[in-house]
Amino acid sequence: MTTTGSTGPGHDVYRGADAEQGRRAGSSAASRVRRVLGRAKRRVLADERLYAGSRLQCPLCERTYRRFRTQSGRVDALCPNPSCLTLERHRLIWLLLTRELGLGARPLSVLHIAPEPGMTRRLRIQADVAYTSVDMESPFAEIHADVCDLPFDAASFDLIICSHVLEHVPDDVTALAELRRILRPAGAAIVMYPIDARRAATDEDLAITDPVERKRRFGQFDHVRLYGRDHLTRLADAGFTVETRDYASELDRETARRYAVAQLIGRPDADADANTVFICR
Q: Is the Cβ–Cβ distance between 242 and 193 less than 8 Å?
């Protein structure tokens, strides 16, 4: 469970061995102008007023907008509210939690691993939720700890949120065993990670530490694996019974459009599926 360098929400960057060469190339006047213009453009795009309207709504902050911010080429991906900034998968998780897993309907003890700021803010004020967040380094986490050695008693939580964490963890087998240990018998763990369905077996090699090679092999500079079609075996081996949910496709079309998750439906050309939800019990 690691944190990543970032120029913005959900946008990871690599500052590696070629950074110095890039700085030298950027010393020209033209490059300086481009940098200034780029910063100005980012400031403009970050201005929430540009998105004013009512066509879309974020289910977490509940604000409405004409459109959401584009992120990594994905239209309507990022909530424009600077205090929220949730992505499609965060909105999808929230809809599942509130519509099917009892959030807001009954008291729940919730553990949020590698907490996203927008979801953290909403969960902390949610009625009848005893909220705890954990990460190794994140300033948004209440407790700093390793997901492979969590400082909680067995059967401590009704609900665990573990979204896009395991692909960062060298020993995901131990991490999953820890999640199973601290989950209450009637509880549920929401688990998500990128999957390449074209691969029969998960691609992982802990000897690879070069960020460029990691990005080429696993999709991001700080990932240590890319799960293949065998990924459910790891969940089952940890003792979980797993329910696989393509939740965006289960929503009616108008709901999916309203909350800007309709773009997750039917992406057969995607290199990896990062939005399937696994409910582990």
A: no
